[in-house]
Every structure is written in structure tokens, then in C-alpha cells.
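Supplementary Methods. Inverse-folding protocol.

Structures were first reduced to a C-alpha cell string of length 152. This string, shown here, constituted the complete conditioning input.
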């Protein structure tokens, strides 16, 4: 194959990696194709069987060496939602009993359902009593938390 075909194929594979959630696999084959394209352009390799062999070996080496490192750098830290139980939350809006509203928890806004028999007022301290599928927290007001928390 000609060098421009390897280079074009490598660029196409890199674009496919960016456009799809492939989990960092396709890009390493793109890098292997770019490597073969550059080596072919420089005249280092010429036979098609040797180009395919180097493409395969280079792609596997790129994959083995760089994929794990790249995933650890890009991967988002996971929040253990079970550790939210017992945490302090501050409502950003009035939440009637059984209704869903927004609370600030660990510096982030969450959807929260009031599981208490009384309303929770804006700024009133409350505790997380449970978590539903990581998307909704259940809250109840603190027993002695009648005074709202002041925010600047």
C-alpha cells in the first residue's frame, strides 16, 4: 500500500475514536497506521506483507503500553453514593413532605425527596437518609435545626 493510504487510514481511525465511545481501542490502530505510513513514506519498508506486520505489531504495542495510562488520566472519579447517607445537606428551595427539590450536598446540587412529615425550608440543615440509584437522595431535617444556614 502507498504511504498516503496508511496516513489517511490512521487519521480516519483517530477521528472515529473521537466520534464514538469505543473505550480507547481504535485510536491505537490509528497510531499503528500512522507509524506504517511514516515508515513507508521514508522508504524504510516497502513490501505490503511487512507493512501489515508492522501495523499489527505497532498497534498492539501502542495498545498495551498506553491504553491503561490514558484511561486512568481520563476516567472520572466515582462517588460512592452509599457514603452519602448521614451527610449534611442544605436545601436550595422549600421541599414539602414527599416532594422532590434541590439540595446542596458536598458542594454539588442534588435532587432530594423530603421523607419527613414536615416541610424543609430553604437553608434548613437536613441529613441524607438514603440514596435511590445514585440520582435521588432522601433527606429529613435535623431535629434541632430550626435556624437556616446563612450562605454568602
Amino acid at each position: 500500500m502507498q504511504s498516503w493510504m496508511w496516513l489517511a487510514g490512521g487519521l480516519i481511525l483517530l477521528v472515529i475514536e473521537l466520534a464514538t465511545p469505543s473505550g480507547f481501542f481504535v485510536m491505537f490502530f490509528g497510531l499503528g497506521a500512522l507509524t506504517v505510513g511514516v515508515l513507508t513514506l521514508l522508504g524504510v519498508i516497502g513490501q505490503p506483507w511487512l507493512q501489515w506486520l508492522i501495523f499489527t505489531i505497532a498497534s498492539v504495542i501502542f495498545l498495551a503500553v498506553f491504553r491503561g495510562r490514558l484511561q486512568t488520566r481520563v476516567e472520572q472519579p466515582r462517588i460512592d453514593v452509599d457514603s452519602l447517607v448521614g451527610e449534611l445537606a442544605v436545601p436550595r428551595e422549600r421541599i414539602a413532605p414527599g416532594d422532590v427539590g434541590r439540595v446542596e450536598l458536598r458542594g454539588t446540587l442534588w435532587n432530594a425527596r423530603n421523607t419527613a412529615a414536615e416541610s424543609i425550608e430553604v437553608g434548613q440543615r437536613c441529613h441524607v437518609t438514603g440514596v435511590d440509584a445514585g440520582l435521588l437522595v432522601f433527606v429529613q431535617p435535623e431535629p434541632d435545626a430550626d435556624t437556616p444556614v446563612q450562605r454568602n
